[in-house]
Amino acid sequence: MKPDNGYFGQFGGMFIPEILHEVFRDLEAAYESLDADFYAEYKAELSSFSCRPTPLMLARNLTRYFGGPKIYIKREDLNHTGAHKLNNVVGQGLLVQRIGKTRVIAETGAGQHGIATATMAARFGFDCTIYMGAKDVLRQRPNVFWMEKLGAKVVSVTDGGGILKDAINAAMKDLVTNFQNTHYVLGTACGPHPYPQMVADFQNVIGKEAQRQILELESRQPTAVYACVGGGSNAIGIFQGFLDSDVQLIGVEAGGKGLNTDKHAARLAGGGACPGVAQGYKTYFLQNSDGQLSETHSIAAGLDYVGVSPIMSHLHDTGRVRFEAATDDDVIEAHKLVMEKEGIIPALESAHAFAQAFKEISRYSADDIIIINQSGRGDKDIFTIADAYQDKDWEDFIIKKADSYAQTRKKHT
Ligand SMILES: Cc1ncc(COP(=O)(O)O)c(C=O)c1O
After folding, report:
1. Catalytic annotation on 341?
2. Which residues contact 256 (CB under 8 A, 6 or more apart)?
3. Coil, helix or strand at residue 118
4. Residue whose CA is at the smallest distance from ligand 1 atom 5
5. 3-state secondary structure 268-306
6. Those residues with Cβ within 8 angstroms of residue 288's Cβ, 6 or more apart along the chain or in another chain
7. Over the stretch 145-154, which tens digit does the pLDDT of each residue have?
8. Does the annotation mark 375 as catalytic?
9. Helix H segments across 195-276?
10. CB within 8 A of 210, min separation 6: which ones?
11. Which residues have a Cβ under 8 Å from the Cβ of 235 and sit 6 or more positions away?
12. How many CA atoms lie within 13 A of 37 on its CB side?
C-alpha cells in the first residue's frame, strides 16, 4: 500500500513526540531501502518457519449445508503460532537485524501477536518485552504462558480498561525511553507512519496467495471476500489480492453486545466513531464529545481496539470496503457451526468473518464463490469458549485443577 506522504486519503500521518521523530524517519528510510535480497530472505523464512503458503480450503460441508455459494476458507490459522501475525513479525524481525537493534517490544490483545513476536525474538536472538492489557492477560492466559516460556517478559498493563489501546500506550512509553536499542514491533496496520504501510505490505502475502489459489482452483475471481477487522491487518492482507477488481470486500468488526449498547468495537460499521488523532495517527476512533477514547468490548480479545487502520478508514470513506459488525452471540453460533461442519477451530476473531458471511449467505447464488479469511486458530480461546458453552465438565476440571494446585502450594509453605 502506498500512502501519500504518510496519509491514506485524510487518514494516517505521524503524530509522535519530538524525541521519536528521528527514530521514525530512520525506520521509514530503512523500510524503503529494502531490496530483493531482503524479500527473498523474507519469503524463505515464511516458508520454512511459518509453513507458507497456507491453503485455500474448500468448505465442502458448509457449502452443502447452505446450498451454495461455494465457500472457501483461507487458512491463516496454519501459520506457525496459529495466526496471520507471524507474516508481519518475520518481516519486522529481519528489518531489525538490518538496522542493528537488539531489543524488540510489542503490544498484544489476543496474545497472537505477542506469541508471534516472542517466537521471532527467540529465533533471531533479540531481547523481548510484550505489553498486554490486564484484562487480556486473564482471558488469553495460555498465550501468556507460552510467551514467557519462549523467553519474553510479559508486562500486564492495568491502566485504562486493561485492553489493547492501553498496551499500545505502554509500548509507546517504553519506546520513548529505550529507542536507542529498541524496535517497536507494532502488530497491526495502525499507528504512526510507516507502520500502517509496512504492516499492510508484510501481510499482502495473504491476498497474493489467495488470488493465485482461487484462479488455480476455479479459474475465476470470487464474488466476495470476508475478513474480521481489529486493527485491520489480516483484512488489508487478504483484500490487497482483490482491491483492483469488482470483488466485494467485507470487513467485519466486533458488534459485541449490540450496536445499540456501548459494549462493542464497531468503528466503521456504524457504531458512532468519528475521525480524530490518537495513538500517533489519524483515523476513526470511538470517542466521546470531548475526544476521550471510549471503553470497548468484544468476546474476541483481538477485536476490541478503539481505533482502526487508517487504510481501512480510507477504504470505508471511498466505499471500496463494506463494514459490518457481528455480535458476540452470532459469533458463538458461527463458531459452533464451523467446528461441527468442517472440523476446524477458528479463533473468535475469525469467527466474526464467518458469522457475517453466514448472515448474508442467502444473498448469493449457488454459482457464487466466497472466501472467508480464517485469521487464526481458536485453541487460545478455550476459556472464553468454554464459558460461552457453559461447559460443566470443563468447569469441574478447572475447579479440580485449582484445588490440586492449592493443596500442593499449602504443602510447600
Ligand atoms: C487471530 C486474530 N485475528 C484477527 C486479529 C485482529 O487483528 P487484525 O485486525 O490486525 O488482523 C487478531 C488480533 O490479535 C487475532 O489474533
Report:
1. no
2. 263, 264, 265, 266, 296, 297, 298, 299, 304, 327, 328
3. helix
4. 302
5. CCCCCCEEEEECCEEEEECECCCCCECCCCCCCHHHCCC
6. 294
7. 999 999 999 9
8. yes
9. 195-218, 233-239
10. 56, 74, 225, 238, 241, 242, 371, 373
11. 227, 228, 229, 251, 312, 321, 373
12. 3
| Distance of CA 302 from the midpoint of ligand 1 (Å) | 5
Domains of the chain: 20-47+83-195 (3.40.50.1100), 53-78+204-386 (3.40.50.1100)
Q: What are phi and psi of 242, to 5 degrees?
A: -135, 5
> Which pTM value belongs to this model?
0.96
pLDDT at 280: 96
Active site residue 336: no
Count of beta carbons in the 10 Å neighbourhood of residue 68: 15
Average pLDDT of the chain?
A: 96
Other C-beta atoms closer than 10 Å to the C-beta of 80 total 18
C-beta of 338 in contact with ligand 1 (< 6 A): no
Mutate to test the pocket of ligand 1, among 1, 226, 303 (most ligand atoms within 8 A of CB): 303
Judge whether residue 325 has pLDDT over 90.
Answer: yes
3-state DSSP of 9-27: CCEECCCCCHHHHHHHHHH
Cell numbers standing for residue 189: 496496520
Interval between CA 234 and ligand 1 midpoint (Å): 7
Alpha-carbon Rg for the chain in angstroms: 20
Q: Return the best residue to mutate from 113, 234, 267, 268 for the ligand 1 pocket (most ligand atoms within 8 A of CB).
A: 234
Catalytic residue among 45, 107, 209, 253: 107
At 232, phi and psi to the nearest 5? Answer: 120, 10
Closest among 401, 56, 19 to 176, alpha carbons compared = 19
